[in-house]
Amino acid sequence: MTTTAALEQLATYRAHNSRASQETFQKGLPLFQRNAYKKMGDDAWSFLEQLALASIDMGRYDIADQCLKVLEERFTGSPRVDCLHGILMEATESPEIALKYYNDLLEADSANAPIWKRQIAVLRHMGKIEKAVNELSQFLDTFYADVEGWLELADIYATCNRYENSLQALSHVIVLAPQNPFYLLQAAETAYTAGDVPLSIRMFLMVVDMSDGDDNEPLAESTPLGITVRAWYGVKLCSRRLIRDPEHASVSASQTDTPKNVALLDELATERLRIAYSSAGKKGDIAQGRDEVFAWVAAP
Amino acid sequence: MFGRLFLVVATFALIHAAYSTYEHLSRLKALNRPEGTLPLNAVYESVFALILGILGAALNAPTLKDITWAGEMKKRTIDEMDTRLGFANYNTRARHLLYPNPKS
């Protein structure tokens, strides 16, 4: 792969926050060893940080050490470099040592956001969930606009099966990032798991609205793609629950009303799923599993 | 293709109008009448070059990109929405899977 193409790919990974450590390492290592990063200007430092994290993820602590040395020479005493030090410590030594390092840094400066996040991450992965949740709640009280933090809180609650709390955290995420249908989908699925079926069906329909939507094509002729299919699955699940069990399923903890035409929604979801798995050619690449899907949507 | 053609024609027309104005004015200067008006043909030619150049530049522009949020979200995948890199776990099995027999 040419140097320019590799650099572009790495820049895309940085912009999209993807954690593709193996590809990053494979593309970035030759650039680092040939010292090509010196010609990159200001991007060189973010590239070095990215390569350091990817090498730690791949187990190559020697490369990470070298990247860290170059960064330290340039940015002595920077909180981001301290953070990288800490991450290397987490990977190579015991978590208690890394925790002590972070606690010392936090005593010196208690509003150091990246270090605080690492401390919370170490606490969670050591298994000290209550302490992690307390620290994370304090962190989010201080830094409300941190979408990552609210997502992490939602994830911790979901792994402990506390789905209502997870939904509350996700509602903050939706307030902070209202244009993102992926978080709305996560919230809809969490609401369904928490038992709030009317809220969940409304959220799934909102996801369909946001993610489907080639304005040039009328709805009847368009094929659902991507997360729209997942949202239609959600609508089908919810409508099936509401039809089979109207008294219990329509009791909503958030006092949401059930939509009026649930049977019609059920039919629409069935039809959309059939179309999604039926189209031939490039748009219909997800046609595997077609028979199973058709059997499932047809069952009462 | 039309855009580039129009742009080339407009450039030539403008250069031609400019050169003919220059010749006209130097002729007037040679005849010792330096305050003559610009020849009307050159004015018409440069206005024509302007209009044709605008048309050519508009047709030659690259196709418009979709910069709506919906268009941007269509290009993302669900995996990269959930990475939470600030809280990621870096204490993985990679060392033991990929380099299981350290030399030291």
UniProtKB/TrEMBL annotation, chain A:
Question: Which keywords does UniProt give here?
Answer: Endoplasmic reticulum, Membrane, Repeat, TPR repeat
Task: Give membrane topology per the record.
Answer: Peripheral membrane protein
KW Zinc (keyword) present: no
Chief location bin: endoplasmic reticulum
Quaternary structure and partners: Component of the ER membrane protein complex (EMC).
Q: Which family does it belong to?
A: Belongs to the EMC2 family.
Cited function: Part of the endoplasmic reticulum membrane protein complex (EMC) that enables the energy-independent insertion into endoplasmic reticulum membranes of newly synthesized membrane proteins.
The protein's name in its UniProt record? ER membrane protein complex subunit 2
Q: Which organism is it from?
A: Coniophora puteana (strain RWD-64-598) (Brown rot fungus)
Automatic annotation (TrEMBL), chain B:
| Sorted UniProt keywords | Membrane, Signal, Transmembrane, Transmembrane helix
Indicate the secretion signal residues: 1-17
Q: Does the keyword Nuclease apply?
A: no
Report the transmembrane regions from the record: 44-64
- Is Membrane there in the keyword field? yes
Tell me the organism: Coniophora puteana (strain RWD-64-598) (Brown rot fungus)
Question: What is the predominant subcellular site recorded for this chain?
Answer: membrane
Entry's InterPro entries? MMgT
User: What Pfam families is this protein classified in?
Assistant: MMgT
Its domain of life reads: Eukaryota
GO CC, one annotated term: endomembrane system
Report what the protein is called.
Membrane magnesium transporter
The record's similarity note reads: Belongs to the membrane magnesium transporter (TC 1.A.67) family.
Its record classes its membrane topology as: Multi-pass membrane protein
Protein location? Endomembrane system
